[in-house]
Amino acid sequence: MARYGRLTAMTILPETDVARIQEWCSARVPEHARDQVRVEADIAERHVTIVECRPPWRPEAGPEWTRLPVARLRYTKSTKKWSLYWRDRNLKFHIYDRLPADTDVDVLLTEINQDPTAIFWG
Questions:
Q1: 62 phi/psi in degrees, rounded to 5
Q2: Is the model's pTM score more than 0.90?
Q3: What are φ and ψ of residue 110, in 5° steps?
Q4: Residue 119 maps to a domain
Q5: Pfam families under this entry (predicted)?
């Protein structure tokens, strides 16, 4: 039940990389826990935002799940490289300077997964 953007003519993101990011998000949470937490990819024209989603913690909070951005992967068409960004407490994104931009999106997904600085998952 992930909410993914659609690749359109305006989107410059490589389709195979976007599919890889979506697969990574789906694999992040075991099937039995997906009613408690999900990881989704919100696709924009030049970036993909990894989002952690949680159900309402109280019935009066409503039916909508909360969505908290975890990381952003930004694509530069001229270099064909992905850059990794982290989110601060004010929901602003900043370049993750411990890892250079890379043509292989899996390198960045591995860094998010390992989270050596605890900046993505806490």
A1: 100, 175
A2: no
A3: -65, -40
A4: no
A5: DUF3024
